[in-house]
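step 4 of 6: structure.
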Amino acid sequence: MGPDLACDAAIREPAAYFGRALQDGPVQWSDSQRGWLILSHAEVEAGFRDSERLSAERTGAFARAAEGRSEAFGRAIELLSAWMNFRDPPAHSVLREPVKGAFTPRAVSAMEDQVQGIVDDAIDRFDGPVVDLNAAFAHPIPATVIASILGADPEDRHRFQGWSDDIGRLVFAMEPGKIAEGPVNRAVAEFVAYFGQLIERERRAPTSSVLSAIVHSPIGGLSEMELVGACTLILFGGHETTTTLLTNALCLLLERPELVEWMRAHPEATPSAVEEFMRVCGPARSMPRKVARDHERGGQPLRQGQNVFLAIVSGNHDRTVFAEPQQIDLTREPNPHLGFGWGLHFCLGANLARLEARIALNTLLQRFDRFEAAGPIPPARASAMGFGRRPVLARLR
Ligand code: HEM
């Protein structure tokens, strides 16, 4: 048996559920997830740091999936092998270092005006007092931001979406060897052609885009496929997650008008509010790893090859770190939530996601005095890995 990340109680009342679960220890086997759950804040943090014993490497599984398949599928696998999140050191650092410079706090704050323009533009397009906040706001803003900072035409974001969905089938496949390769191969070929051209353009005439920073990184050394891999990972990693954070935060605000009032009165405190949204309704509930070699963790014997889930959601409600974890405290300080991961693989786009969320939420609440649900607010959907609210209609004026 053991705890279940995806059960109803863990989704609806995480502080109570994981508070009880933690009484039985910080590391527990879960029959439901068929793996070890790392539950306490301290152990989740330690797990994120321990890439030697808890591996993120997926290239072995990808290589097995490519056996006996077409050459085109081999290229899809090659592309995913260039995603740093699927690699352990030393390959991880080779892939991350040239990209890191494009997302430093200074590089991201230089994107502020661009993001503000995109948010204003999304709001200007609202076509009535009742707005689908997902379709008109939470979805287009991150998609446009990511396309723009990469130096792509934001209008192409609809094409990216289709390709990303097709690649997602491979990324999220439990058994990558069994998926139909046609759509994946087409999507990869389109991505390679599209970004190949952009990379070439940046080589000839550098711009101030993130892609330019990666192509001209002083660390350099990335092959053509690794550069395309970085672009696709940034598109993939930076879009859906940020959309989900915005939707989750907006649903919470529609449910809790007193939080809206507080945010309107304290716009300067939106950064700490965003951290609290990440803690209580961040899109990532757990991150998977594989046991690289036998060892003991939290008093439990972990065996090579077993699955491990670093339970972000549980760590984020650990009462030894967060006083009254069930309360939403928009001024919580410090707030060492684990919603962007920790350590080696810490989210490269965290500063950008924070910037987008701050500007989007502040601008929306400043431009409309009335902000209320125009119908029932759908309950949360969650899996062991992710948490997301459904699209919601709001009445704005
Ligand atoms: C609210 C939005 C976001 C959330 C919740 C989120 C969450 C995460 C998490 C939990 C990880 C750690 C993965 C692991 O340890 O296995 C991660 C890694 C990563 N994220 Fe994000 N992310 C967000 C936004 C973004 C954005 C906007 C970008 C791109 C601009 C981005 C790019 C990446 C990349 C490249 C990695 C891999 C880092 C590595 O393996 O070294 N993310 N993200």
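step 5 of 6: annotate
 - The first helix runs from residue 8 to 12.
 - The pocket of protoporphyrin IX containing FE is lined by residues 56, 84-85, 96, 233-234, 237-238, 241-242, 245, 282-284, 287, 339-341, 345, 347-349, 352-353 (CB under 6 Å).
step 6 of 6: archive
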